[in-house]
Amino acid sequence: MIDALNSDLEQDLFAGNAVTIRNANFMLRTAIYPGSFDPVTNGHLDIIERGFKLFDRIIVAILHNPAKKYLFSVDERMTLLRTSLKKFPDIEIEAFDGLLVDYAVQKNAQAILRGMRAVSDFEYEFQMALMNRRLNRNVQTVFLMTGLRWIFTSSSIIKEAACFGGNINGMVPSAVQQKLKEKFGR
Ligand code: PNS
């Protein structure tokens, strides 16, 4: 009986519905953390960790950025995310080929979570957030500042350093470091 009740509650919550317990309403605060993750870096992990302080449920979603040429396939990026995010047991990781706001609606998410590093991120992030809001007014974009130690790191700069044999120790999870070594042969 309790199990059936719990599973009904769970179904309601994951469907984005509010549930009432002792006159109090509860709703899962769900965020999509979208990106290319080519590959995932420690900066991404930092944002996820901060995100869990605000959201009950975070779905990491690999989406397509038409402006980018990828080093890793979607399958490779997914595997690296799964390995690197083991310390977040409840996290969900998916790939979606389409509009981010459509995906957010499909997953009953109220928010899109994005990390903000330096001022240089602002224009692109601002433009994307406003476009997403125009496409769907019910999905809010929430920006979190990365920790200072990740302010200059990005997947692109890490790939560039790795490609010339630079030391990227401590910037990416160990599985990613290994995979970059294999890709570049150095
Ligand atoms: O890590 P990135 O490359 O900065 O992430 C950008 C990404 C993948 C989140 C963005 O390009 C995206 O949302 N792509 C899906 C298509 C979409 O909805 N674009 C935004 C509105 S036009």
In short:
The chain has 186 residues and is an alpha/beta fold. 42% of the residues lie in helices and 18% in strands.
Question: What layout of secondary structure does this protein have?
Answer:
Layout: H1 2-14, E1 19-21, E2 24-26, E3 30-35, H2 42-51, E4 57-62, H3 74-84, E5 92-95, H4 100-106, E6 111-116, H5 119-135, E7 140-145, H6 155-163, H7 174-184
Parallel strand pairs: 3-4, 3-6, 4-5, 6-7
Antiparallel strand pairs: 1-2
Fold and architecture overview:
The structure is a single chain. This protein has 186 residues and is of the alpha/beta class. The protein is 42% helix and 18% strand. It has seven helices and seven strands, in the order αβββαβαβαβαβαα. The strands form two sheets. The chain has a five-stranded parallel β-sheet with strand order 5-4-3-6-7, sandwiched between helices. A two-stranded antiparallel ribbon has the order 1-2. Helix 2 links the parallel strand 3 and strand 4 (57-62). The longest helix has 17 residues, at 119-135. 4'-phosphopantetheine binds at residues 34-36, 63-65, 68, 99-100, 128, 131-132. Residues 34-36, 63-65, 68, 99-100, 128, 131-132 line the site of 4'-phosphopantetheine.
